[in-house]
Structures are given as C-alpha cells and as structure tokens.
Amino acid sequence: MRSVGVLGNYDMMRIALGIEYDGAAFHGWQSQPHGNTIQDALERALAEVAGESVRVNCAGRTDAGVHALAQVAHFDTAAVRPQRAWVRGANAHLPDSVAVRWAQPVDAAFHARYSALSRSYRYVLYNHAVRPAINFGRVGWYHRPLDIDAMQRAARLLLGEQDFSAFRAAECQARSPLKKLYQADVARHGDMLIFEFRASAFLQHMVRNIVGALVVIGCARQPPEWIAALIAGRDRTRAAPTFSPAGLYFAGVEYEAHWRLPETSRMIFPSILL
C-alpha cells in the first residue's frame, strides 16, 4: 500500500507498529539528547532496516521506568520492505527489553496519537510486608494491608469527564486538565492489586497520582469520599505523593475498526507476577 505522506509525497508509505517494552532502563518514551529513550532506540533500529532516518510518533508517551504491553506507533518511509522485515529487522537491532510485535501499512490519514479513541493503563501493586526481588522494577510495592473494598468505592468516583488537576504533574504540558475516564477498577489477585484505567487521554503522572491516592484510602488514612474532595479542590499539593513508575504498564489503545489494525491492546497479566 503506497500512501500520501504527511507532506503530500506519494513516494512515502506510512507504517503502523505494535510495540512492547520494559521501561526500567529507559528515560521514558520521548527522544532526548542522551538517546536513552524508547523512541531513540526504535528510530535507530528502524533506520537500519529502512536505510534512512525515520521519525516515530506514538499513541501515548510513557515516563521513565514505565512499561508497555501494547504501545502503538507509526512512521513514514520511502523504503519498500516486506512487513515481516519491519518486525524481524527492527527486533534484530533493538535491545532485548524492546520488541516490535507487528507492523502494518496504513493510510496516511492514520495517526497513532490523534486517531486514538481511548488509551488504557494497568498498574500492578505488590501488597506484601516484604519488598519484591524477582519482580523488582516490574511492580509497585506497598507493605501495609489495603482495604480493597474502600479502594473500589473511591475508584468509582473517578469516572466520567472531570478536572483532574489534583492528579496532574506540575510540568504537564496538556492544554486542559479535563479528561474523560471510562474505566477505573481495582482487583486483588493474591498479594497483587491490579488497577485498570481507560480514558480519552491521560495527564502526565495522572495514573500514578491516582494510585497513590487510592493507596492512602486503602490503608484507612482517608475515606473513599476523599477522592471527590480532591477532584473538587483541583489542588495537587493536597493529594497523595506520586507512586512508583515500576508497576505502570501502557496496556493498549482503542481505534476505529476501519483502520484494521492487529493487536492494539493486551489484557494479559504475566503469570510471573502472580
């Protein structure tokens, strides 16, 4: 499929990618001068396959230490390669902690970020008296018992379109703090607590700040209704500290069906974490 590129160049093709990564060793997604980001590693690998420099756009930029199960990105290239070459070739040049799961040509109207209808995040919290070792860097940790029922009641107060200023990082560059949260669930699996969030978009540190507030409620330092008070107050300084990035996973993106993309979300929960 040849398609019109972003500059109207009919010799360009747009390729969508599905990516997973362990973000522990990286300084987030977005390219930085030192080059130790997911975007930098991916662009270097794709350039080896394309024989030219490429610029990648993603559905949701993750922070340092945050992982992805189903990130979606796209890039434009003049290089003609079989679809499997973008997967196998890129993976041959990527570090072991980053993998391209699929590649597919798409119409030039598709944009990994702007075509997205919603995004999903999962937070995995190890709730045990002793810190994790095997899962270090893959899960968050809290040592005191947590009341899952209180946390679930609080999570329901987050649903709908609201001003999430109380859960926004000071350096967040989003134009508006208004976001629509479609899902906010908490479930216990043994010593693991699994938080599931789906929204139109997320503010910087929004999920980690929400998890921090829910943990405060879970250990009975605040009632579930505290969440509503934080939202109404729109004051980040009155909320809980930002929780660790270790347990946060970008879990997927929702797109309209007509784009015919392969796997754009992964609801798996790695058994090694249980």
Structure notes:
With 274 residues, the chain is an alpha+beta fold. It contains 5 helices and 10 strands, in the order E-H-E-E-H-E-E-E-H-E-E-E-H-H-E. Helix 1 packs across helix 2 and helix 3 crosses helix 4. The protein is globular. The N terminus is likely disordered.
SSE pattern:
EHEEHEEEHEEEHHE
Mean pLDDT score: 92
Overall number of strands: 10
Low-confidence stretches: 1-7
Fourth CATH level, the homologous superfamily of the largest domain: Pseudouridine synthase I, catalytic domain, C-terminal subdomain
Basic shape: globular
Question: What is the rounded Rg?
Answer: 19 Å
Distance between termini?
Answer: 43 Å
Biggest β-sheet description: 10 strands, mixed
The SS-based structural class is alpha+beta
CATH class term of the largest domain: Alpha Beta
Number of helices: 5
Strand content: 25-35%
Estimate the helix proportion, in percent. 10-25%
How many structural domains in the coordinates?
2
Q: What's the architecture of the largest domain, going by CATH?
A: 2-Layer Sandwich
**CATH overall fold name of the largest domain:** Alpha-Beta Plaits
